């Protein structure tokens, strides 16, 4: 059996290979100045994620608006089965593996599967892991998580290895949108070392030097959301830090 990797994922893999890391920017479909943010982000992000954890309205409209502004791939980041739009390119086909409710671990993605097929969206298989302090954020509340502690990097790493054994090619270490602090470097490095799959890190990253150290620790992708809602211009300095760290990481390989 041959497993086909889609266009968007292939492109992300090429960028990771050539530049050491990708920069993903998260846009909330409910954001009012979505066009202004997309306009700024289009020259720096490698792809745009679209999603929100508390209900989704105007998703199709939001995706169409972004599409008018840029040709960058749009990857849906669904907070539930209603987070799907046929106007996007791909979807993080995600299981919240450390939820205490099987709905978030397997039922929601299963209920979305046929829609994904019908909409011709490229599914990118991903373990979504909510790490301390995610419990204090919207995703922790909605996703009913068993929060993974930061002082035990092995637990997160073990989930990443499990994700790999399940055939997932990506794991998202999520501290929660707007988190007071991001996932620590030890958790990132051990997760990467043990699993070897692509590691996405997001939640609470607001400074270029922090993004820089997360990439050096082993992150293949960095996500920022809130920061750009507050200051879309910050995208440039984040981009530079991520790509600088990516280059250094490739050199030290
Ligand atoms: C694959 C399909 C169809 C569904 C998967 C559904 C799953 C597993 C969802 C996991 C639980 C969840 C609520 C995820 C939300 C992820 C997300 C879109 C976060 C975006 O951040 P917000 O939490 O909206 O941030 P703000 O609070 O800053 O708006
Ligand atoms: O909004 P921030 O804190 O950048 O978090 C982004 C992302 O990890 C949320 O899913
Ligand atoms: Mg939101």
Automatic annotation (TrEMBL):
Gene3D superfamilies in the record: FMN-linked oxidoreductases
Family under the similarity heading: Belongs to the GGGP/HepGP synthase family. Group II subfamily.
List of residues binding Mg(2+): 28, 53
Keyword entries, A-Z: Cytoplasm, Lipid biosynthesis, Lipid metabolism, Magnesium, Metal-binding, Phospholipid biosynthesis, Phospholipid metabolism, Transferase
HAMAP family linked: GGGP_HepGP_synthase
Record's keyword annotation contains Metal-binding: yes
InterPro entries: GGGP/HepGP_synthase_sf, GGGP_HepGP_synthase, GGGP_synth, IGPS_HisA/HisF
Subcellular location, record wording: Cytoplasm
Function text: Prenyltransferase that catalyzes the transfer of the geranylgeranyl moiety of geranylgeranyl diphosphate (GGPP) to the C3 hydroxyl of sn-glycerol-1-phosphate (G1P). This reaction is the first ether-bond-formation step in the biosynthesis of archaeal membrane lipids.
Transmembrane domains' residue ranges: none
GO CC field: cytoplasm
Binding site for sn-glycerol 1-phosphate: 172-178, 203-204, 225-226
Signal peptide: none
Any matching Pfam family: PcrB
GO biological process, one term: glycerophospholipid biosynthetic process
Enzyme Commission numbers on file: 2.5.1.41
NCBIfam families named among the record's database cross-references: GGGP, GGGP-family, PRK04169.1-2, PRK04169.1-5
Catalytic activity entry: sn-glycerol 1-phosphate + (2E,6E,10E)-geranylgeranyl diphosphate = sn-3-O-(geranylgeranyl)glycerol 1-phosphate + diphosphate
Location, primary (coarse class): cytoplasm
GO molecular function, one term: phosphoglycerol geranylgeranyltransferase activity
Record SUPFAM superfamilies: FMN-linked oxidoreductases
Protein name listed in UniProt: Geranylgeranylglyceryl phosphate synthase
Record keyword Metal-binding present: yes
Pathway assigned to this chain's UniProt record: Membrane lipid metabolism; glycerophospholipid metabolism
Cofactor: Mg(2+)
Higher taxonomy: Archaea, Methanobacteriati, Methanobacteriota, Methanomada group, Methanococci
